[in-house]
Amino acid sequence: MDRRKLIKIGALGSILGLSKSVFGETSNGILIKENNLIDNEPKKMIYPKIVSTWNHGMAANQKAWETIKNGGTALDAIEQGLRVTESDLTNRSVGIGGMPDRTGHVTLDACIMDEQSRCGSVAFLEGIDHPISVARKVMETTQHVMLVGKGAKDFAIENGFSKIKTPLPEVKAEWKKWLKEQEKIVKQPQINHENHDTIGMLAMDKDGNICGGCTTSGWAYKLHGRVGDSPIIGAGLFIDNEVGGAVATGLGEAIIRIAGSHTVVELMRQGASAMEACKETVDRIIKKHKNLEGLQCGFLAIDKNGSVGAFSVYNGFNFAYTDEKQHKMIDAHFDRTW
Ligand code: ASP
């Protein structure tokens, strides 16, 4: 391994207070040996490639991959891939099939960022089928980064997006059942690993350019008006094409608190691998929270060489990985078990 990089990383490790085992040197220059991730690829520069969070990432990656193979850009791949998940009416955590807030409104959050650091975002958007495309429209046709609520909806309609009535009838029935149960229990929305699952995607094209996107219906039964990390550039998503990109999933409030995805990218800038950067960012979340009950957060990152890493607070986080040779789910590493 390049000695200068090792020294740099060693220094970074001590600044960050990371344990020696995390930065253990190996004969082949792989910093973390025991993981099953793709962290040992930097020298091979394998791209194009697509990664995205959770099982719904498989179908999304497939579409993103086809888009890239048919000559699309990484940005096209992100938009087309994420639209697949948004279109899946059985998906309860992304798009119009998503779970509502506690007042019965399905409010959607999404953002997109490209290799030139251009970005667009929509939050608290209701009744529009493709928030990721609206986010791209904001990025490409306005001077702004973020539109929210009614303004975002008006913008979408003006730009030809169709209106959809939400929640879907079956989702509404579930919400009504939940509401009845809440009368007996505490009036506090709870988050756990069953009521959230954003899709965040990172795509690297054949030239090594990185783009990313994120789309979600957010925390089921959240307070009306709540916006999570997913549409916030630097929290749910961050790209710096010189360094790499990262996306987040899990409890948005915890991710926002540490500017999660930006933190991952900045750690990579200082020499950490994608995997180390995700781990250190999770460590920071753990350090900042006394009560970790139900506090699942996960990060997925790709560096400029195409090396991928993923790490979460609890077990159970996985991601879809697609390149020329592979199309599969990979389990992220984690700090603790449920
Ligand atoms: N991060 C999303 C939010 O807080 C939820 C999730 O990823 O599951 O809205």
What does this molecule look like?
With 338 residues, the protein is of the alpha+beta class. The chain has two domains: 33 residues; 303 residues, 4-Layer Sandwich (Glutamine Phosphoribosylpyrophosphate, subunit 1, domain 1). It is built from nine helices and 13 strands. The strands form two sheets. An eight-stranded mixed beta sheet has the order 4-3-2-6-5-1-11-12. Strands 7-8-9-10-13 form a five-stranded mixed beta sheet. A hairpin with a 3-residue loop joins strand 7 and strand 8. Helix 2 packs antiparallel against helix 3, helix 3 packs antiparallel against helix 4 and helix 8 packs across helix 9. The radius of gyration is 19 Å and the shape is globular. The protein starts with a helix and ends with a strand. Aspartic acid binds next to strand 8. The site of aspartic acid has 13 residues, from strand 8.
Regarding CATH, which class of the largest domain?
Answer: Alpha Beta
The proportion of residues in beta strands is 15-25%
Strand order of the largest sheet: 4-3-2-6-5-1-11-12
Helix and strand composition category: alpha+beta
Helix content: 25-40%
By DSSP, the count of extended strands is 13
Report the CATH architecture of the largest domain.
4-Layer Sandwich
Radius of gyration from the CA trace?
Answer: 19 Å
Spans of 5+ residues with little confidence (pLDDT < 50)?
1-36
CATH homologous superfamily identity of the largest domain: (Glycosyl)asparaginase
Q: What is the number of helical segments per DSSP (H or I, 4+ residues)?
A: 9
Number of domains: 2
Mean pLDDT metric = 87
Intertermini distance: 36 Å
